[in-house]
């Protein structure tokens, strides 16, 4: 971007000016999540580990959802090339420490300032850069492009309002998005919106679908799974997963109604942010439910009506224990979460009406009968009660969803092939 459009010049100046404040806020959040002090400097582009030898692919994601979406791709390339995954949140960092294969490392993403980008790229000497979903940071993109590093944007998804904002700055949009050699979009809307903003859209843009559907089933500790099956025995179990502030109240109301038909039913309530577990447990007890909190090592008995599963990385366990999952973030304003994780493990999926973040995925699952939308606590309780009673079956949903999962696997193979092509070209150019 040698001749930067005025909005990008202004953005560059503002990003530099507010960098101390942005770093202070990031530092405070990471320290609150028990991230070692030494690692926080990664947000300024300072590396805290050595670069591996050989070629290196850099994946830049935002948080847990985006990180999980690229794991199939990281696993596909594992053993062929070194990889670096950057994210901005403590939760994603902790999860990736457990999930990344050998040869892949995690660092916190540098702030989008010229100095942080320069330090980061100088140390890591990236060969291919892959940005994920809506991680479009102008300074990072410019610094990467200036070093002739091939750039890709995968699993791209942008709201109508975001696309409209870029449309008001056509020169800036073209300067940013044309830096990508290939863009794989999740949906046709994002494809069509970006087609107005990039040069040579016919060669750069591909509607690929959502890579999150290609993820391998969430892992599980088999010993823990066996132990929990013994604990729960034949009790009716349903999962309320990834809940946000304000969603637990209707879930408790639904559970109260469900227990009228299934008095021994237990709800496993998994908060999106585990630090909320203590508050949720206290509120649940205040409403008269016998409650156990996992992070507190509280005992689950036959009387326990609600288990607050406030730990990280155990969704694979809970989804395997229950045939019914309500995926939260859909009753409030969070916009919904990745529906493919429970579907991949055979769950009958229920969700609320607010799923804009993954609208196409939910629409696809609804059209094939793999997911059901519920409007409120009453409709949720009716659906869960029916599923736990065996009045409906999830087998047709699972079969239809499996076809979508196969298509996503093909997308992963296609993207991996293009990355290999860029690596080969980079190698031969040296």
Q: Can you characterise this structure?
A:
- The chain is α/β, with parallel strands linked by helices.
- The protein has 18 helices and 14 strands.
- The strands form two sheets. It has a seven-stranded parallel beta sheet, with helices on both faces. A seven-stranded parallel beta sheet has the order 10-11-9-8-12-13-14, with helices on both faces.
- Strand 1 (56-60), helix 3 and strand 2 form a beta-alpha-beta unit.
- It is globular and about 70 Å long.
Unreliable stretches (pLDDT < 50, length at least 5) are none
Side-by-side strand order of the widest sheet? 3-2-1-4-5-6-7
Distance between the termini: 24 Å
Number of helices: 18
Mean pLDDT: 91
Structural class: alpha/beta
Radius of gyration (CA) equals 23 Å
The portion of residues assigned to helices is: 40-55%
The share of residues in extended strands comes to 5-15%
Overall 3D form: globular
Give the number of DSSP strands: 14
Largest sheet composition: 7 strands, parallel
List keywords for this structure.
single chain, alpha/beta, seven-stranded parallel sheet, globular
Explain the layout of strands and helices.
Blueprint: H1 6-17, H2 19-32, E1 56-60, H3 64-77, E2 82-87, H4 90-99, E3 104-108, H5 114-124, E4 128-132, H6 138-146, E5 151-156, H7 160-167, H8 170-177, E6 182-185, H9 188-195, H10 201-204, E7 205-207, H11 222-232, E8 237-243, H12 248-261, E9 266-271, H13 277-286, E10 291-293, E11 306-308, H14 315-321, E12 324-327, H15 340-344, E13 348-351, H16 359-367, E14 371-373, H17 377-388, H18 395-429
Parallel strand pairs: 1-2, 1-4, 2-3, 4-5, 5-6, 6-7, 8-9, 8-12, 9-11, 10-11, 12-13, 13-14
